[in-house]
Write a structure and sequence with these properties.
A seven-stranded parallel beta sheet has the order 3-2-1-4-5-6-9, sandwiched between helices. A two-stranded parallel ribbon has the order 7-8. A two-stranded antiparallel sheet has the order 10-11. The protein has one domain (9-246): Rossmann fold (3-Layer(aba) Sandwich). By secondary structure, the chain is α/β, with parallel strands linked by helices. The chain has eight helices and eleven strands. It binds 2-hydroxyethylsulfonic acid.
């Protein structure tokens, strides 16, 4: 990674697949200088070869990794935007049967991982905002932050905590040219989200999307990230909830063709 000015330079976490990888692809195409961060080096290398992005192999749940990321970002020109995408769900156990270790892991990646990244990179973002007039923290939460469902309590609690933390952050940054954007997607069909949640059960994953006409895909969310980042500097998209048309709510999913009631 060479030193360069921090204008339109973004770091994306969870970049090895799904929404993160789609965001890296789209922002690279748009001329952003992109740093893709994730744990899996082989996937990052493929993304680097495809898009020309810089890569950092690191885990948002590791204090020492995040410190290393901070040092590398600062020594290579800083960033003007951070996209906190790393996260995920583990299991679908009801509260009385869930493994506390799974909840711990969900809180670590979905909540504390975002806090670690913001704490580490806020100085760089502040510097960029002084140069450019604005800098951005975009975080991918979930519709799960706003509606609980059976078997999802650990995940919904973590995403609700993330939402609450982002509201607090926006208040704390009041008066600075820093935008805090939260994007809350519903059903997004990616290669890994549901597969990870269901412990690798491919049949169960496929059944989740069965008959759903056009679930969101990673590129749909990436496009909203791009829109938020490229909006005029005075426009803060505080919170965007997005779902496929077939999903009126997590518990109100239409399977089968969408058809007008004529
Ligand atoms: C994923 C959305 O509906 O599985 O963040 O909770 S949902």
């Amino acid at each position: 990674m060479t030193a360069e000015p921090s204008g339109r330079r973004v770091l994306v976490t969870g970049a090895s697949s799904g929404i993160g990888a789609a965001t890296v692809r789209l922002l690279s195409q748009r001329g952003w200088s992109v740093i893709a961060m994730a744990r899996r080096e082989d996937r990052l290398k493929a993304l680097e070869a495809e898009t020309g992005c810089a890569i950092i192999v690191a885990d948002v749940t590791s204090d020492s990794d995040v410190l290393r990321v901070r040092e590398r970002v600062e020594s290579s020109g800083g960033i003007s935007a951070l996209v906190n995408n790393a996260g995920g769900a583990i299991g679908i156990d009801p509260v009385d049967q869930a493994d506390a270790n799974d909840w711990d892991a969900m809180f670590d990646v979905n909540v504390l991982g975002v806090q670690r990244m913001i704490k580490a990179l806020l100085p760089s973002l502040r510097k960029a905002s002084a140069q450019l007039g604005v800098a951005d923290i975009v975080s991918i939460s979930s519709t799960a932050a706003f509606l609980s469902y059976e078997g999802g309590a650990g995940y919904t609690a973590a995403k609700a905590a993330l939402h609450s933390a982002l509201v607090g952050l926006r208040l704390e940054l009041s008066g600075e040219p820093l935008r805090v954007v939260e994007i809350a997607p519903g059903m997004v069909k990616t290669d890994e989200f549901a597969l990870n949640r269901f412990g690798g059960d491919a049949a169960r994953t496929e059944a989740l999307y069965d008959g759903v006409e056009a679930p969101l895909v990673a590129a749909d969310v990436a496009e909203v990230v791009r829109y938020a980042l490229e909006s005029p500097a005075h426009v803060n998209l505080d919170l965007i909830q997005m779902k496929p048309v077939a999903q009126a709510a997590q518990h109100k999913l239409h399977r089968g063709p969408l058809a007008p009631k004529l």
